[in-house]
Amino acid sequence: MFIGRAEHTLDDKGRTSIPAKMLEKSSGQLQFKFNITVGVDGCLAMFPAGDLEKFLSGFSTSGLGMEDRLYLFRELISNIHPVNVEYQNKNRITIPGKLLEKAGLSKGAPVLIIAVGRWIELWNPDRYSEYIKNYKGRGGFDRGGKLFFGSLLGLDSDEKEHTAPAGDGQ
């Protein structure tokens, strides 16, 4: 599982560094080969080499019509680029120019690197801030967070909705 968050700068060749801690999988091994492609909400997504094919083969498109399926796969698959982390050179990756454009990333500008468990996302920091601002208006972290932390307590969804707030004394 990939964890963490960092901000680095893209150099004039479209390269950025991925923190070593973020490259460590739960097995304790470092991951150095990735596939990078377009992600959702305007980011780029980096998947461990080999895992993306597993994810795609296990992905159900039953909720999508034929045109939406074609569009999704055309955009996702045609934008896949293999990248190697240059572990002897500050854990750098080179992001293809076409993907930099799609994600609104510029050479010489910051890039936000966010681990999302099974993949890593690369964001334009301003675009990510805007995404967070818009998402907070829809319930933000708390809605999903209550489900997650409630599940750790063994609460079902009805109990989570009706649990008294902390400090209520009941």
Question: In words, what does this structure look like?
Answer:
The chain is α+β, with helices and mostly antiparallel strands. The chain has one domain (5-123): Chemotaxis protein chec, CATH 3.40.1550.20. The chain has seven helices and eight strands. The protein has a six-stranded antiparallel beta sheet with strand order 1-7-8-4-3-5. A hairpin with a 4-residue loop joins strand 7 (110-115) and strand 8 (120-123).
CATH H level: which superfamily? Transcriptional regulator MraZ domain
SSE order, as H and E?
EEHEEHHEEHEEHHH
Outline the biggest β-sheet. 6 strands, antiparallel
Percent helix: 25-40%
CATH class: Alpha Beta
- Domain count, please report it: 1
Q: Roughly what is the average pLDDT, rounded to an integer?
A: 84
**How would you write the strand order of the largest sheet?**
1-7-8-4-3-5
Tally of contiguous helical segments: 7
Distance between the termini: 38 Å
The appropriate CATH architecture is: 3-Layer(aba) Sandwich
Give the amount of beta strand, in percent.
Answer: 15-25%
Shape call: globular
Gyration radius, to the nearest Å?
19 Å
Structural class category: alpha+beta
Q: List how many beta strands DSSP finds.
A: 8
CATH topology: Chemotaxis protein chec
Low-confidence segments, given as residue ranges, are none
Summarize it.
This protein is of the alpha+beta class.
